[in-house]
Design a protein that fits this description.
This protein is mainly alpha-helical. It has one domain: Orthogonal Bundle (Hypothetical protein af1432), CATH 1.10.3210. It has 16 helices and no strands. Helix 3 crosses helix 9 and helix 14 packs antiparallel against helix 15. The relative contact order is 0.13.
């Protein structure tokens, strides 16, 4: 078991003080509860599927582009680097980093948009809620319970790594203000209260900011590789212009591939250092003596300082216009949305098109209809890109090439 030593900060999550699991299990003799959670995520079916789920470029556009799996691994590396400097529990941090995208459907955000539109009148689709559903219900690996039976701290972090979902009075926060907290999270929370009103642990907050750092860095790398922009186009972002100038001064004859790699490395180091420094300043002000005091704070402890936060927003704006909304990418994503939409509609119109294991066991008509929609949602959300295309070819005469 991971040793409990003075090296862990008092505000870190202590596995010996975990709030436990939804279903009681005997403790492991060799692993902490959080290490056990991390191992369960790694061995899950949903984690393996991330290998063939789109990050930005679909699976057959090139072997070197990120997938959801490689993105999750990069998030885990960055998250552990931050956790180590802040003396947090690295196992919990890694578990959350690896699990944060388990609920993503095929074709990345295009698939999520399509499923959300299909389910607009039935609560929509939210990938965080789907991640929770995967680890609490959809994985079938154990004889006495569904899901992975992860610890309270891991489930909390999956749901709240981007901040509280509600006010103490139940008012939805953030992007849930307009449509409310997803029903899947609300229903689970009634049975196993995740304190949706509070901030999550520092380990969860670290996983959240590591996701942003990984996105910024590897999407620059993939965008350059795809030829959607050039290195020198990034000079419109002052932070990156300074980094490129420093790289060129140190290595005046560096080839473009190594120059790009050096920029990505510098950016990751800069953002990690900035996040650690800001966290240390906020923790010094709060002086938390426990993970509970971190959860009860009135602000996140893990964040970028203002000047780096502004630069990071500029990077995201650049990537939005030059990469995510590039016509080459949008053409493929529109076709991908069509694939998901048509699959959903076909399964609704012809329930027999679903595999036998996914057919509902019907009772009353209203319950049967709701159950069928849930099964269709879960079936499509679990698909990889190639499997979604295979299913579409099975059911339709023509299927987009996604190129």
């Amino acid at each position: 078991m991971q040793a409990m030593t003075a090296d862990r900060a008092p505000y870190a999550c202590d596995p010996e003080l975990s709030r436990g699991r939804r279903h009681d299990e005997p403790p492991s003799r060799t692993r902490s509860p959080f290490r056990r959670d991390c191992d369960r995520v790694i061995h899950s079916t949903a984690f393996r599927r991330l290998k063939h789920k789109t990050q930005v470029f679909v699976f057959h556009e090139g072997d070197h582009y990120r997938t959801r799996l490689t993105h999750s691994l990069e998030v885990a590396q960055i998250a552990r680097a931050i956790a180590r400097q802040l003396r947090l529990d690295e196992d919990l941090t890694e578990a959350l980093a690896l699990a944060h995208d388990l609920g993503h459907p095929p074709f990345g955000h295009a698939g999520e948009r399509a499923l959300d539109a299909c389910l607009r009148d039935h609560g929509g689709f939210d990938h965080n809620a789907q991640s929770l559903r995967v680890v609490t219900a959809l994985e079938h690996r154990y004889p006495t319970f569904d899901g992975l039976n992860l610890s309270w701290e891991t489930l909390e972090g999956i749901v709240k790594h981007n901040g509280p979902l509600i006010e103490r009075d139940g008012t939805p926060l953030g992007h849930y203000r307009e449509r409310g907290v997803p029903l899947g999270i609300v229903e689970f929370n009634r049975d196993f209260d995740l304190d949706l009103w509070s901030f999550a642990s520092l380990e969860a907050q670290v996983a959240g900011i590591a996701d942003d750092i990984a996105y910024d860095a590897h999407d620059i790398d993939d965008g350059l590789r795809a030829g959607l922009f050039r290195l020198d186009d990034l000079r419109e972002i002052p932070l990156l212009a300074e980094m490129l100038a420093a790289i060129d001064a140190r290595y005046p004859h560096l080839d473009p591939v190594r120059r790009a790699a050096e920029l990505v490395r510098e950016l990751i180091s800069c953002l990690i250092g900035a996040a650690v420094g800001e966290a240390q300043r906020r923790l010094e002000r709060l002086q938390p003596r426990s993970a509970a005091e971190v959860r009860g704070a009135n602000e996140a402890m893990i964040a970028f300082p203002p000047e780096i936060a502004a630069a990071e927003k500029m990077i995201k704006r650049f990537l939005w216009t030059r990469m995510y909304r590039a016509e080459r990418v949008m053409t493929v994503m529109r076709d991908a949305e069509t694939v998901v939409t048509e699959l959903f509609q076909r399964y609704c119109d012809d329930p027999g098109a679903l595999p036998p294991d996914w057919l509902p066991a019907c009772g009353p008509i209203a319950e049967c209809e709701a159950d069928r929609l849930r099964r269709i949602r879960n079936f499509i959300a679990g698909m990889t890109d190639p499997y979604a295309l295979t299913e579409h070819r099975r059911l339709f005469d023509t299927t987009p090439d996604l190129r």
